[in-house]
């Protein structure tokens, strides 16, 4: 199947502020796509536009080949948005059955309870659930119509580490079954663990796009850090080959490079006076910081 989601030069403007700015994007079926970005980057707005909950100021959005506001498209998607309250005075199983009744071909209740890890809580009243359990119930409700596309806005907020890992495995299993999953997260580890593709958004634009490995590989993000002795001048280091970026913080230096081994060799060969030498990075944290700082110049 082709693209499940297609955005063409989509802008959403609030007064002078462009929450989403000429965003073009296509997502294929069966992918897990993570939207990353700092607070206010435009992630939730992008998801609301894809879901048809907000109308773009300009540009076109297509979901499952159609208009996201069409009834027959809505029935094929499931979503958890931020801070949605579940209905009180009903038991977990009853709320799930209520939501299932809205759909022609719902997922079986037992499967929903199992996927959400709520089998033991089935007979509990929803107001007695913990924060993390409520989040999992929302997930079960989002899946109740057996959707082809699932949108999750910060789905694991409030979950403990174990629940989060179980949740990731379950998402991967759903994607392997052919479902498309789009999630926003502030946890880089989460994006790294489950996403086939990461989109980094800042100021309403995509500033990086690739698999976790591509982003880590292309941006490197690896650096050598050390405390520079008094004789080392900034120009001495700037003249070394293969340095992408240098940061000085007092005498604490970070040298970013695609090849930390050969740079370390050059430093040692030149007899620089260095202490506390460390090679770090190569993780998504560094990639994220770099992309946000440099607005992703040239990275896509
Ligand atoms: N209804 C609205 N009216 C005015 N401005 C809005 C509205 N909704 C969002 N914005 C602005 O649009 C920008 C993007 O917000 P959005 O909620 O999409 O960011 P986000 O990436 O989801 O942030 P977070 O990580 O904090 O959830 C922000 O500057 C926000 O203040």
TrEMBL record:
Residue ranges constituting the ABC transporter domain according to the UniProt record: 5-228
PROSITE patterns, sorted: ABC_TRANSPORTER_1 (PS00211), ABC_TRANSPORTER_2 (PS50893)
SUPFAM superfamilies: P-loop containing nucleoside triphosphate hydrolases
Keyword tags: ATP-binding, Nucleotide-binding, Transport
Record InterPro entries: AAA+_ATPase (IPR003593), ABC_transporter-like_ATP-bd (IPR003439), ABC_transporter-like_CS (IPR017871), ABC_transporter_ATP-binding (IPR050763), P-loop_NTPase (IPR027417)
Pfam hit, one: ABC_tran
Gene Ontology terms, MF aspect: ATP binding
UniProt entry tagged with the keyword ATP-binding: yes
Protein name, UniProt field: ABC-2 type transport system ATP-binding protein
């Amino acid at each position: 199947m082709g693209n499940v989601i297609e955005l063409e030069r989509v802008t959403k403007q609030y007064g002078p502020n462009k929450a989403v700015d000429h965003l073009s994007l296509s997502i294929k079926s069966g992918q897990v796509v993570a939207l990353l970005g700092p607070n206010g980057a435009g992630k939730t707005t992008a998801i609301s536009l894809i879901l048809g909950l907000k109308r773009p100021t300009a540009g076109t959005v297509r979901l499952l080949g159609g208009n996201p506001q069409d009834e027959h498209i809505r029935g094929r998607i499931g979503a958890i948005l931020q801070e949605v309250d579940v209905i009180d005075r009903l038991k977990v199983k009853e709320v799930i059955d209520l939501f299932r009744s809205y759909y022609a071909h719902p997922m079986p209740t037992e499967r929903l309870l199992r996927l959400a890890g709520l089998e033991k809580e089935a007979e509990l009243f929803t107001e007695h659930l913990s924060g993390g359990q409520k989040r999992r119930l929302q997930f079960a409700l989002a899946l109740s119509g057996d959707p082809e596309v699932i949108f999750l806005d910060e789905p694991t907020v409030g979950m403990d580490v174990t629940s989060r890992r179980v949740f990731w495995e379950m998402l991967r299993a759903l994607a392997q079954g052919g479902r498309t999953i789009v999630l926003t997260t502030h946890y880089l580890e989460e994006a790294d663990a489950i996403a086939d593709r990461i989109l980094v958004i800042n100021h309403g634009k995509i500033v990086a796009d690739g698999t976790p490995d591509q982003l880590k590989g292309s941006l490197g993000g690896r650096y050598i850090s050390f405390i520079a002795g008094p004789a080392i001048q900034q120009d001495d280091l700037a003249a070394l080959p293969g340095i992408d970026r240098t940061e000085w913080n007092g005498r604490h230096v970070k040298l970013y490079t695609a090849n930390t081994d050969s740079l370390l060799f050059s430093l040692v060969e030149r007899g620089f006076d260095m202490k506390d030498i460390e090679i770090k990075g190569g993780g998504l944290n560094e990639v994220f910081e770099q992309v946000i700082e440099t607005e992703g110049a040239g990275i896509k």
